[in-house]
Amino acid sequence: MMIKRGFVSLLVLAAFALLAMGSFGKSDDEKAKEEEAKGTAKIGETISFEDSEWVVLDAKDVGSTLKSNNQFQEDRTSADGKFVQVHFKITNKSKKEEMLFLPLNLIDGEKNEFKELDERAFYVPAKAKTLGMEALPVGLSREFWTVFEVPKKATNFKFRTRKLKDDSDTKLVELGF
To answer: What's the CATH architecture for 38-174?
Structure first.
């Protein structure tokens, strides 16, 4: 009897949690419409959020082969794709040290979304930093690099910037290619 009551309580709690997430969360379509309504920034422009500022410093199509920055890691080649490298700066405007845990996204002109390469740290300039477990101290700026693998025909890329803690507030940056 006690086990049954505990199980029912757990089910009720799970149901409330799902209802809460459903009522507060936004669909991907809603997020995309909000993002479009905000317009886009250009490379070099500062994008401000309540907890941070972002500036995309540079972005480029680096072709179908990524050169490794490590003698023990081979170069990476994409048979049917290419790689896009983005260099950006984040300033922490919050009251405490923050870390970014959610992956960064690149969106093409067809609204396809691409996540960062898992092993991106091997394919950025030597000694460049990638966002991983990198701390962002209060009031300070840090520069980072990231890499995305995309189809060869993909164009019109936009890099998604966002609040530090979550992706509830975002803005796109046009990369110019």
So the answer is: Sandwich (2.60)
